[in-house]
Amino acid sequence: MSFLSRWWGQYRGILFLGVVSISTAWVVRQTQGELLSELYRVITLPFQGNPAQQQQLIAAKTWEQQQMIADLKAQNQNLKKLLDQPAVKQDVAIATPVIGRGADHWWQQIMVGQGSRAGIAEGAVVQAPGGLVGRVTKVTENTSRVLLITDPSSRLGATISRSRDMGILRGQSNKFAIIEFFEKDPDVRVGDSVVTSSLSRLFPAGVAIGTVQSLKLEQVSKPQAIVELSVPIANLEWVSVSFDGQNSTKKSALNP
Fold first, then answer.
1. If you average pLDDT over every residue of the chain, what do you get?
2. The domain 85-256 is classified under which CATH number: 3.20.20.10, 1.10.260.40, 2.40.10.340, 3.40.50.2000?
3. If we measure between CA atoms, which residue out of 157, 141, 159 comes closest to residue 149?
4. Sign of CA dihedral 65, 67, 72, 73
5. Which SS3 state, helix, strand or coil, does residue 224 take?
6. Per the count of CB atoms within 10 A, which of 4, 16, 42, 124 is most buried?
7. What pLDDT does 165 receive?
8. pTM to 2 decimal places
9. How many helices and strands in the chain, by DSSP H and E?
């Protein structure tokens, strides 16, 4: 009897585990693994996510990729337009991205990603598809600051293409500018095209500026017209900078 007691005390733990194992195997066999499958489902449920949410995430990612492709196509088209645009006075013209623009002077100036290393100097003419953007006022080795024609301090000679009447165009910190005519009775109509004047000292003649949208010929001391600018200056991403090719040649000689 004492032998059985000692044997039981020594092996009862092993017997218990064996019974549990056999019972578990029998349950699994009888339920065809349903219990373990359910347990696995409960454990992994937090990691599976909601199917509807997964579909939303997939749709959102697809939309994001489509927008990226559309944006790249738009940038490619803009670059093609810049490359197709003739340089002012057949000078050198290079395309450069807009790399800086402050919210407090959005309509006043931009920073572009090319500078004296590329041959750009102060006074270089800046354009975009549609016409005139402004001129370079400060240059570093790799950047240039551009004064926009929308800046209220900007002044340039402008001409009505149809009648050749001239005036001074000044910015209004928006997509419109005002041209103040020299003549008291200018021949100007809504829809007339406006270009840079041959009398301008800052810009070459004939560069597109915009279109006359409204007239103020009697209400002010000097006749005026409101001009809608042809370049969407608020949304500039790339511009074309035209400058004297001799600057580029000199720069190349200094930096072979």
1. 78
2. 2.40.10.340
3. 157
4. positive
5. strand
6. 124
7. 94
8. 0.65
9. 4, 12
